[in-house]
Design goal:
Elements lengths: L11 H12 L5 H8 L3 H13 L13 H32 L3
Helix pairs in contact: 1-3, 2-3
Length: about 100
């Protein structure tokens, strides 16, 4: 695929296969990069990222890691609970001042 700057974008499967050719296929980075028509440095980057996260969680744009998604969900839930608590505190203060 092409993006607006003319650079090719590669999907996760392509990247994983390229890294696999180097790590398990016994081929050199330069050989695989040349064969795939990509720059060696790009393949080195993919290989490094794979080594840091071999489970295959995607860190590409638009695809946050599951742990990042869970963190954002919990932060949002925490903010909502704090807001609810503040509302209840204010309500308690109002009802404590004015007996019915």
């Amino acid at each position: 695929m092409q993006d607006r700057k003319g650079y090719r974008k590669h999907d996760r499967q392509f990247k994983e296969e390229a890294v696999r050719l180097v790590t398990e296929g016994g081929r050199t980075v330069s050989d695989v990069a040349h064969g795939l028509g990509i720059h060696e440095n790009l393949l080195h980057t993919w290989k490094r990222k794979h080594k840091e996260n071999p489970a295959g969680s995607s860190s590409e744009k638009g695809h946050p890691k599951p742990s990042d998604e869970e963190l954002r969900r919990l932060q949002k839930e925490n903010a909502n609970l704090k807001e609810d608590r503040e509302i209840l505190k204010k309500a308690l203060a109002i009802f404590s001042k004015h007996p019915t």
